[in-house]
Structure formats: C-alpha cells, structure tokens
User: Fold this.
Amino acid sequence: MATRQEISAFLASVERRAFKQAMFAVRDEDTALDVVQDAMFKLVEKYADKPAAEIAPLFQRILQNVITDHFRRRKVRNLWTTLLSTLQGDDEDGADRDVLESLEPAAGSGQAESAADEVQRQQTLSIIEAEIARLPKRQREAFLLRYWEDMDVAETAIAMGCSEGSVKTHCSRATHALARALSDKGISL
Assistant:
C-alpha cells in the first residue's frame, strides 16, 4: 500500500505533465485543470490502498477515463441544449498559451535566450504541440505516456488497457506521423 507521502509526491511530480495531456485532449485551460483535479481526487479517494508501483499507470488510466467522461458529458449536454456556442466556449482565447513555457529563467542563469531564439523556440513548440494534438487519440495517448511520462511499454499497456504490441504500433505510427508532419514544415529535430 502506498503511503500518504508517496501519493503526495507522485501527484506533485505528475501535475504539470497531466495538465499538458489534458490540454492536448480538451483544448481548454479551465477544463484541463478540472480534468486533472478530478483524476487526482479519484486516485486518492478510491485507489489510495494500491501499491506504490501501481500508482503511475493507474493514474494515467484514470486521467484518460476522466477525459473520455468529459467528452461524453459534453455530448449529452449539447444534445439537450440549443445554445451550443455558449457551452463550448471560444477555444482561441487560451489554447495557444502554455503556462509551463511562459516561465522565464532568472537573469544570469545561463538559460536566458535572445528574443529571436525564444520566438523561434515558441513557434517550433507551437507547431509540435499542434501536430501532437492532430494525432489520433490512441496514438497521442501512447506517444505521451511513452515519451512524455517516460513509462515503459508494459506500464503503458496497462495504463491504456491494451497489449504491448498495440502500444508499440501506436507509438511507431505516432512518431512517423510527427516526423513526417514536422519535416513537411521544415523542422528537423
């Protein structure tokens, strides 16, 4: 059984990455925050008795389920509401801003970059994020879990509820699609 400190440390370490994953899926900052908060509450409320080794894949599964539930609820609401535009909001307001990318390094830290470098980096990151968002859901999920959450194939398979072979296929397709899309835009990494 995971201790309270282990769960707290895990949630603190995963919150920003989980927020970014939710942003890719729901494309709204406030909704993404709600999704991550709901996933964290469900983990603590219902699964605190699980071993520490199972927390990371379990949390990813919960997060994906909360995202799916969000879309289901939104679909039902939209069926019963005639004013669709008031419920869906304007995605253009906050979707392009990334809280993590807007933090500036301290002066003299060696991490400060020129304005031109920062603009170029921001544009490249924006293109990469847009291409990740265009991936099919399962490819995006596998890609983010493997390469962003740094899970191995087995952990990713557990989190996604599929076979290890499916994880490898989804990751391969995602990386090839991203490489092709970025190459078409003249970006080489």
